[in-house]
Amino acid sequence: MDYRSPRWLPGGQLQTIWPALCSRRVFGSKPRYLRQRWDSPDGDFIDVDFLHHEAIADARVPSRPLLVVFHGLEGSSRSHYSEAFADLAHEQGWNCALPHFRGCSGEINRAPRAYHSGDHAEIGWILARLRSAHPGVPLMAVGVSLGGNALLRWAGEVGNHAETSADAVAAVCAPLDLAAGGHAIGRGFNRQVYNRMFMRTLVPKALQKLAQHPGLFDRQALLSARDLYAFDNVFTAPLHGFRSTEDYWHRASAKPLLGAIRVPALVVNPRNDPFVPEASLPRQHEVGSHVTLWQPAHGGHVGFASGRLPGHVRAMPDAVAGWLARQAGLQRVTTAKSLHG
User: Which of 120, 301, 312, 318 is labelled catalytic?
Assistant: First the structure.
């Protein structure tokens, strides 16, 4: 696999921002979804969007390969990469499921907890339920950014048992060393742009959670938080069983478990990702034989725009889905698109 950014889109920051805001996401119509609400084992719920195939009768849906897409921090089934993967699945005639982490579907969840980068138990429950609903067909899972770390954390935690729920997995732009990524997003341009973007949605959601469960955390401490480090210290870490931000970032990182993965896994990390320092990326000696590393020089954070201005973001989904399909025993994904700009 290879990727070359277009000449008109230089640098990791532009390769991150422009594709998310301006590049085309689909080649056909905007994906249509059918939403299901699942009750979780702890009395909460999640919302799962399924790609709607107009030409496929409902009775035939379980017989088709399934692509599962886990979104990133504050993402959803309408994130640019989610729609691009759904467009590819529609083109291939696959089913596609896009689960929302708790609180990310447009409605706040019921329980005190929310979601976090190492939420491997949630990943495992979702994949097991999807496998049960789609028996005997290839199930491929991809996680983007936070979702990618959580997916690989799950694969490493369960080891040989992963193959009971997924045939192959991929992580795109996952911050596998959460401390390195967390510190990177808290500095310079990242702090002024991305950090503020995330805080604009995370803080109001946390306040909704506090209204649901009075006394859950210190409201003033939350309102004083100016970055993800402080937010995680007040909200994410204590609500999910971690002592502090440092404890959360250490225990939730997937990088230490890459050697324990026993299902085919693709790990995609551009070396110019503003969120994920190149020095923190895994090297070949740090991963097991089931793990394939792809670390192109360019791409930004979930950017990978290709083609003429304004560009298109299908290049990365095409490449990742092609790899997953081969590992799952499917025919190679054939598209007219290219990774080259």
Answer: 301
> What pairs with residue 31 in β-bridges?
none
- Residues paired with residue 66 on neighbouring β-strands, in sequence order: 95, 139
Catalytic residue among 273, 290, 298, 312: 273
- Select which of 82, 145, 280, 306 is catalytic: 145
DSSP secondary structure code for residue 282 in this structure:
P
Task: Write out residues in the chain with pLDDT < 70, as ranges.
Answer: 1, 54-62, 332-341
Tell me, yes or no, if 39 is annotated catalytic.
no
Q: What is the pTM (predicted TM-score) of this model?
A: 0.95
Q: What angle do CA 299, 284, 124 make, to 5 degrees?
A: 75
Q: Going by DSSP bridges, is the β-strand pair 33-39/291-294 parallel, antiparallel, or unpaired?
A: unpaired
Cα 138 versus chain centre, distance:
20
Integer Cα distance of 37 and 53 in angstroms: 19
User: Is 145 known to be catalytic?
Assistant: yes
Is residue 301 among the annotated active site residues? Answer: yes
